[in-house]
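Internal QA ticket QA-208
Title: Verify multi-chain structure generation after dependency bump
Assignee: T.L.

Test input:
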Amino acid sequence: MALQDKYAELLQTATTLGVANLASTEQEGVLHVSGTAKSTADYDTLWALYDKIDPNMTSGDLMMNIDIKADAGAQLKVTTESTNLNIRSTPSTEGEIVGKAAHDEVVTLVEKTDDSWWKIRTADGEEGYAFAQYLSPL
Amino acid sequence: MKLTKLLMAVVVSATMLFVSCKPKDADIKAAVEKALNADPAMASTTVDVKDGVVTIGGECKDEACKAHCEETAKAVKGVKSVVNNCMIAPPPVVVAPPASLTTVLDEATQQKVKDGLKDMPGVTVEFVGDKAVLKGEVTKSQRMTIMQLLASAKVLSDVTGLTDKK
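Actual output:
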């Protein structure tokens, strides 16, 4: 069964949710899907669907690189498991820690520096780079 | 007397006409080659002439070039006809590099994955070939986070070693 068929429901839902620049390519046994979701809720829906189609996502045949639309100034929630999120002076773990954002705290997006690091500003005025994995656009 | 002279002149001219107005094949070949070599686009052609019939061989860039070669040859004095056997060189095969769908597992990328897992002490990651192999006990939500992290780093993964936290 071609991967596009296996994940047909996912691709269909992505289209219905209005994921921008939706693209899917099959390469070497892996389906690569990319695009920009309108909200964190839509993003979560797609991931839940992935888990439904491939329980525990262990097949390793889908690479869903969908980011969430967030322009400078957008509010982001810190979604670490429970710990604080370090805010650093440069976009890497080598960067000096210049501040911390607590779990569930809301911060403002200054700039999406790259896929993994975003520049943010806390309500207290601390500004620096944080790991994007733990930032969810509200 | 005048008539004889005239007659002789005619005969001589006629003979000369037959003799001097027919260039030799070698001369035609030289002339055609010169004409074609004048243009670098037509310089990879070969020329052969037999009895005033020019055969063009070799390579031409495209149809337009091929036609131009033919016309150039035809224009040379003495050329009766042109057989155009010019081969049009196939276009160079341009293989577009495949769009980078996954990231090379270099130091920086490996670090990104490790950074993302810092929040999950029970999970280990090993980089085998082009995949990140993860092992450990995880909750459903952690599993989701790991997959999302790997997807945003565009890293292929093997998560069969992840077990559910009881």
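Spot checks passed. Chain B touches chain A through 31 residues (CB under 8 Å).
Status: verified.
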